[in-house]
Amino acid sequence: MSLIPTNPVPKNLVYVLNGPNLNLLGTREPEIYGHDTLDDIAGQLEDRARELGLEIDMRQSNHEGHLVDWLHEAQAQAARAVILNAGAFTHTSIAIHDAIKSVRTPVIEVHLSSPHAREEFRHHSYVGRAARGTIAGFGALSYLLALEAAARF
Ligand code: DQA
Questions:
Q1: Family assignment (predicted)?
Q2: Structural domain of 101
Q3: Which pTM does this prediction carry?
Q4: Ligand 1 neighbour 111 (Cβ under 6 A)
């Protein structure tokens, strides 16, 4: 019997990836997205992650390719899950759709607002077609609910 595990030990790392304009949360259309900044949300996630025995790596970029690279990285790091708010790329990006399909790491789509209750152009989600599931419409709580899901994977 070998003492070296043959399967990689699943890590308790959860990537939280945020797309364009989410760096402006807090001042960006607060009537839609609320008053929490991305740092506020990161703090809430870190508190809950600690209770759940998870570690989070929270990032934001306004550039599509960064999100693609980070999805690949999440798999390379054997992350347990990715929580992804791709912002407007949700509705446009086949590259992000394909990246989600390309990795085995489960991806949870999140939105602060409820895109289906908004303009027609937000009703289609390329991310949602590839993600494990979607949580939308609960403001910062959407992220925390996604973390609860990730904890049960
Ligand atoms: C969003 C919804 C998207 O339609 C929009 O482009 C965003 C934010 C949300 O979290 O509600 O940038 O992803």
A1: Belongs to the type-II 3-dehydroquinase family.
A2: 13-151
A3: 0.94
A4: yes
Q: Residue 142 sits in a domain of what CATH number?
A: 3.40.50.9100
The reply to whether 143 belongs to the active site is no
- The C-alpha atoms of residue 78 and residue 73 are separated, in whole angstroms, by 8
Spatial CB neighbours of 92, under 8 Å, sequence gap ≥ 6: 126
pLDDT in tens, 119-151: 999 999 999 999 999 999 999 999 999 999 999
Indicate the Cα dihedral angle 116, 121, 124, 126, nearest 10°: -130
Does residue 4 lie within any of the structural domains?
no
Domain count, the chain: 1
For residues 50 and 85, is the Cβ–Cβ distance under 8 A?
no
In a domain, 3, yes or no: no
